[in-house]
Write a structure and sequence with these properties.
Keywords: Membrane, Transmembrane, Transmembrane helix. The N and C termini lie far apart (53 Å). Helix 1 runs antiparallel to helix 2 and helix 8 packs antiparallel against helix 10. The chain has 10 helices and 3 strands. By secondary structure, the chain is mainly alpha-helical. The chain has a domain of 126 residues. It has a 3-stranded antiparallel sheet with strand order 1-2-3. Helix content is 71%, strand content 7%.
Amino acid sequence: MNVKVIIGIFLCLFSIIGYFVSLHYLLLGSILTLTFWIGLWLFIPKRFFDLTWNINKGRAYWISFSLYFLFHLILYGFFYYIILGAIIYYPIYTIYVDASITPPLPYFLYWISNSPSISIIIAGYDMGIFPFTTFIGVILAFLIGSNIQKIMELKDMLTSYKRSTALIAIPALGVVSGTSCCLSLPSLVIYFVALDLGMVSSVLPILASPIYFGFIWYGLPISSVLILLFNLRDLNKAVYRLRFRNCNINKETNTN
């Protein structure tokens, strides 16, 4: 068995087992959360990094990677606290680590996704950087950077081969679709409003259900990962076929 998989299994099991023995030890609970996400990271196949990291990274990659990752953290961090009403009405600028006590078992996934977190207060607005949003944000940033890099490579090839660059419109739309995890924010707003207003939950009970929250908080970002991954696969195929076809044309030209 792969060494990374063995280590990943050990770390995840350590986190889950430690959950039952941590009780109210805050530091141990934080360590368990970190080991859980490190363990999940080790489960990611090497093929993923070959597609998204071990490539020729140009300016397009780094710009799209950096901008999306910052946008992802800021958007989710600020909106999460604003929706919860965590606003301080006086100018204060500070940063601190926030962690929660080990909760009952039904809240394990939510706890391990949000604790510990880095909280940043800027002029009364609280921003949180959470384990899950950081984890999924890095993965999405890898995919967006590699997709953009591959689209630019495809564009350069089409230009050099004197073909229409309109062909890149379809994979570009795939990237736009893949970033739709951020579109779950309106759903989060509706969800928390539904919790505040009992009458809403009586009319639309699904809005106030944990299943709906789990779908918009976890399901949509994970769906975006799959969309971007399939889009990158198709882009690689398009680049390979275009390069292969051009090589055949050059061989025929040289033969004649």
